[in-house]
Amino acid sequence: MKIDLHSHTHYSDGHLSPKELIDRAHNMQVDVLAITDHDTVDGIQEAMDYQSEQKRSMQIMPGVEISTAWHNFDIHILGLNVDHNDAQFLARLDQQSKERDRRAQQMSDKLAKVGIENVFEQAKILAGKGQITRAHFARVLVERRVVKDFDAVFKKYLGKGKKAHVKPQWIEMAEAITWIQDAGGKAVLAHPGHYDMTTKWLKRLVEEFANAGGNGMEVIHSHLTPERKKLLADIAAEHNLQASSGSDFHYPNRWTELGKNLSLPVQLVPIWHDWSLVG
Ligand code: AMP
Ligand code: MN
Ligand code: MN
Ligand code: MN
Prior knowledge:
This protein folds into two domains: 3-92 and 179-245, Alpha-Beta Barrel (TIM Barrel), CATH 3.20.20.140; 96-158, Orthogonal Bundle (DNA polymerase, domain 1), CATH 1.10.150. Helices cover 40% and strands 15% of the residues. It has helices spanning 18-27, 44-54, 87-113, 119-127, 134-143, 150-158, 173-182, 199-211, 226-238, and strands spanning 3-4, 32-35, 59-70, 73-80, 171-172, 186-189, 216-220, 242-245. The N and C termini lie close together (7 Å). It binds adenosine monophosphate and manganese (II) ion (MN) (3 copies). It holds the Pfam family PHP. GO terms for molecular function: 5'-3' DNA exonuclease activity; 5'-3' RNA exonuclease activity.
């Protein structure tokens, strides 16, 4: 079974519509695909409706990726198998969405101070009805040739401590876990190998996440060396966290693909072990 539990659509910073994402996953022979946009479940119903029209065996799992603040880090928590119609959950996610707009406006003000005008307006058009993210800002700055690529935007303007960085006021990790579980889902620590932190901090992060009631962590995600994979598997086992894996697909490129190289280490309990999956 090919199970990919982390992907984005244009309801946040993914480039594909739910329909395009699903068609691509189907072509890649994915059996289960979780759609996990940043701080929103707005694309889920469209995805489910399209999928049921297609009569394909692939299963779509409703998900979300919630931004949280932990010490000085932005930590992402996936909510898997959430009820995307839960009114309380939708109202809670709306708070995050408002914070996205507030932060975006402030980042734009900071950019204007260094002579780069009206980025908010342009980024908002790119984001459309989706959540506005730093990735949209990055696209605008690259399009305007202010910098040469995405990486350079984060290094010069949008990364922590850089010229146009605005500290986001995300909810705390424990709160995100509660939101997800109240909506019937499982909370999974996203891409723990991606945070720019020492192993000591990483271990502290996982410990606090587990103590706060988190269910699982991604032990397989992109850009991991075999040593890092082993480290993540060991830390997950130590805290009895279930294991998840996902491509974090945003758009077609040469580094990431839906459903590729996602098998979990055999000694870990998969996050889907008590869900009935198709396939
Ligand atoms: P936000 O949630 O608005 O802070 O935006 C974060 C998003 O920007 C992430 O989900 C990534 O898709 C993207 N991103 C963050 N850092 C980088 C980076 N250094 N290079 C490229 N994309 C990045
Ligand atoms: Mn993203
Ligand atoms: Mn993330
Ligand atoms: Mn993601």
